[in-house]
Write a structure and sequence with these properties.
Layout (H helix, E strand, L loop, with lengths): L3 H12 L48 E10 L3 E8 L2 E2 L4 E2 L7 E5 L2 E5 L2 H5 L4 E10 L7 E7 L5 E9 L2 E9 L13 E3 L1 H4 L10 E3 L2 E3 L18 E4 L15 H6 L1 H4 L14 E4 L26 H13 L3 E6 L3 E3 L3 H6 L12 E2 L14 E4 L2 E4 L6 E3 L5 H18 L3 E4 L16 H17 L4 E4 L5 H6 L8 E2 L2 H8 L1 H4 L3 H13 L6 E3 L8 H4 L4 H13 L3 E5 L47 H5 L5 H14 L1 H5 L1 E4 L7 E7 L4 E7 L10 E3 L7 E9 L7 E3 L5 E4 L10 E10 L1
Parallel strand pairs: 14-15, 14-26, 15-16, 16-22, 22-23, 23-24, 25-26
Antiparallel strand pairs: 1-7, 1-9, 2-6, 2-8, 3-7, 4-7, 5-6, 8-11, 9-10, 12-13, 17-21, 18-20, 19-20, 27-28, 28-29, 29-34, 30-33, 31-32, 31-34
Helix pairs in contact: 8-9, 11-13, 15-17
């Protein structure tokens, strides 16, 4: 059976015809090699109700078409090379231009220049160029190569003409594209795009040291892009040491990106994640980084801002978005702002919360929250190592908005995980989830969406689902972590009681807009999955099944996919990644900053990679299936009755398909059960189940009015510790 995804892969590979040769560089007035980029647009097959879709033929094309190319640049030169797939017919027509800027066609390139002194002054030029292209009969994509000087930025926008209206088909900012100046990449526009038939999607491939990528995807069936994403949480200090100092670093993550996602959808040896959450990367006196001393810099133990930008480029080239952990609630008590604020006469004094005497009340969890400093007392919800910022001071708000703008605009990250998000503004002794805090986040959303509407925020709201839902109504956070659901993913594997999970997953799905919550098993604040499950890898795989088939947006904590152990204190749940059986687990060439996990010899990437029975293989399979099947990403939810306490069963339904998920949580086979629901999204009729995970001979499903069914037994026996995912095809209404 051929899936929609496999067809897409074939179509993508067929369409990718990118030049690997670099022409001579244009004469540049600035120094250094220009960077280059690849952006590839490909078509999605039409939605179908059958498991084996057929290609939709591309439309016939005219002999020629016109592109409008709009440049906005502060660089001294920008060049657009026409590589293949079409020929320029007309001369460049400059509609608008900045002072002193010129545009000309030089053989195979459209060359835009402005005076070097203007570029050095940061001046921006804008021009619009209309060019007629002749399209060959073989309908190959039109391939360009984009280059620019070392000064400033460049942005290029491509539009096609619909009647008398120009419609944008690509808009690319320099920070969003990749290239190293040595292996030039290309920008492609398909003939179908020129006609306005199809949208751009990510189609990365890898080979010969090149990565060709398209625009990052915008979401399935009208959902935001993050609903198509599986995030991976990385503690940089513990992921991979690239320079032999025993501490993980940003370059180490870049080196290991192929493990996370190699950029080639045709391969199955990578994990397949499409999002990365970096725990704090800022300078800090603490190992964990949550006490920040400079919000505009990278911890020198981790690297530099340039290292981060290289990581972002390499990740984006693979279709991976990257979000940063940010502590807007507080700074380190060693931050220069706070040290200065200890002087009551300092303008920084009111950046924090002070009292002449100890107010005496305790915090949210009964902890001390007032700490002595310079004959005064300052407030912090956590400890004396932190200091809460005073957002009633407009100067604080303005500065932290500058911080957010810097990372989104100047560096190019894709969003933020928001630490301690419910504690932003206290109202007396009311220290969490205050009306002022909600108002703060509403204003914050308006601010960051104004910078980048596609950026994301993920709130840390460690509270009940009802409280969580208050932040997820479309006016505050995009997502927030569901801690109660995380607990209930694991607990049935400990006590055998599925009822709380069934109740919790229905509640979480019902309380917030569909699928707009973040799911996980554990994170850096909790004992690792395998430790909670007594070291049983089969149960760890079942936990993965529950997580990756559930509604919401899944987050994986680094090392969970290979079965790392770890129990508090926190340092021991943040131990070095286990890459191999070589000394120091392949994490470093010297003794690492934290002792290795005790199971590293048996549970590591090297051993797990080629083992089909490993935890890693199970995660790879589930993530791949989630990427292939929209019902697992954006489908609605029906929790089914089973008549068996060990059997978990849910139905996921999207516009394109329906899938049935069965998980036997017990060590014994399930032979006595019957699936049912009084209502579902299934149309009335008869369905044939096709297994996309698991094997067997399955019986048909008959549904009645409102998608109801009862006494359905798809398989006589469900083996111990097994997962089945069945695609349901409507045979007859």
């Amino acid at each position: 059976m051929q899936s929609r995804h496999s067809f897409l892969i074939q179509l993508v590979l067929f369409c990718m015809l990118v030049s690997a040769c670099k022409p001579a560089l244009p004469a540049a007035t600035s120094t250094g090699l220009p960077a280059t980029a690849t952006l590839t647009a490909t078509s999605l097959p039409e939605a179908t109700d059958t498991p084996s879709p057929t290609p939709t033929p591309e439309p016939d094309l005219p002999e020629s078409t016109t592109l409008r190319i709009r440049f906005i640049t502060s660089s001294d030169w920008t060049a657009l090379f026409l590589v293949s797939g079409a020929a320029w017919v007309s001369e460049a027509l400059v509609s608008t231009a900045g002072a002193g800027a010129t545009a000309e066609i030089l053989d195979d390139q459209l060359f835009i220049t402005q005076p070097i002194q203007n570029a050095e002054a940061g001046d921006t030029s804008e021009m619009v160029v209309d060019i007629l292209f002749s399209i060959p009969a073989d309908q190959e994509p039109v391939t360009f190569r984009l280059e620019r000087g070392d000064i400033g930025f460049s942005q290029v926008e491509f539009s096609r003409l619909e009647g008398e209206t120009w419609v944008v088909i690509k808009n690319v900012h320099w920070d969003e594209i990749t290239g190293d100046g040595i292996n030039p990449h290309a920008l492609q526009i398909t003939p179908a795009e020129l006609l306005g038939e199809l949208a751009a999607v990510v189609t990365p491939t890898q080979g010969s040291g090149e990565i060709e990528t398209g625009l990052l995807p915008q979401g399935t069936e009208g959902f935001p892009w993050w609903n198509d994403t599986v995030f991976y949480e990385i503690f940089v200090r513990s992921f991979y040491d690239s320079n032999g100092d025993g501490i993980g670093d940003l370059n180490g993550i870049t080196e290991k990106l192929d493990y996370l996602n190699d950029g080639n959808p045709a391969t199955t040896t990578d994990l397949g994640i499409t999002g990365i959450w970096l725990m704090p990367i800022y300078p800090s006196p603490s190992y964990h980084g949550y006490s920040v001393t400079d919000f505009y810099a990278v911890n020198p133990e981790y690297g530099t801002l340039d290292d981060l930008r290289e990581l972002l480029d390499a990740a984006h080239a693979r279709g991976i978005r990257v979000i940063l952990d940010i502590t807007l609630n507080h700074t380190s008590s060693q931050h220069p702002w706070f040290i200065e604020a200890g002087n009551p006469d300092s303008p920084y004094h009111d950046w924090y919360i002070w009292s002449d005497v100890d107010p005496g009340y305790l915090g949210y969890w009964g902890e001390q929250v007032w700490f002595p400093y310079n004959d005064l007392y300052f407030y912090c919800i956590f400890s004396a190592n932190f200091a809460d910022l005073n957002y009633n001071n407009p100067a604080v708000l303005a500065e932290m908005q500058n911080v957010v703008r810097f990372w989104l605009e100047d560096v190019g990250v894709d969003g933020f995980r928001l630490d301690a998000a419910k504690h932003m503004i206290e109202e007396g002794q009311n220290q969490g989830n205050t009306p002022s805090t909600h108002a703060f986040w509403e204003d914050f959303r308006t601010f960051y969406k104004g910078i980048n509407p596609q950026s994301i925020t993920v709130g840390e709201i460690w509270d009940t689902p009802e409280i969580l839902a208050e932040y997820l109504q479309g006016d505050e956070f995009d997502l927030s972590f569901d801690f109660y659901l995380a607990y209930n993913f694991i607990q049935p594997l400990i006590d055998g009681n599925l009822a709380p999970l069934n109740q919790q997953i229905e509640l979480s799905y019902t309380l917030v807009p569909a699928n707009q919550f973040a799911t996980f098993l554990t994170n850096h604040d909790q004992n690792r999955v395998l430790s909670q499950l007594g070291g049983d890898p089969q149960k760890a795989m079942l936990a993965a099944s529950l997580l990756l088939t559930a509604p919401g947006v899944p987050f994986l904590y680094y090392g969970e996919e290979i079965g790392m152990l770890g129990q508090k204190p926190d340092e021991q749940i943040r131990s070095p990644m286990q890459w191999s059986t070589s000394p120091f687990a392949g994490f470093s060439t010297i003794s690492p900053w934290q002792p290795l996990n005790p199971n590293w010899i048996s549970f590591n990437v090297e051993r797990a990679t080629d083992d089909p029975a490993s935890i890693l293989s199970h995660y790879r399979d589930l993530i791949l299936l989630r990427s292939q099947h929209p019902a697992l990403r954006v489908g609605d939810l029906s929790v089914l009755t089973t008549g068996n306490a060990a059997l978990y069963a849910i139905l996921r339904h999207s516009q394109q398909e329906s899938v049935l998920v069965l998980v036997n949580l017990s060590a014994a086979p399930v032979t006595s059960y019957a699936l049912g629901t009084a209502q579902s999204s299934l149309a009335e009729g008869t369905y044939t189940p096709y297994p996309i995970l698991g094997e067997g001979e399955f019986t048909s499903l008959a549904t009645g009015a409102n998608g109801s069914f009862s006494q359905y037994v798809p398989l006589p026996e469900i083996p111990p510790y097994s997962t089945f995912i069945l695609q349901l095809q409507l045979d007859s209404p």
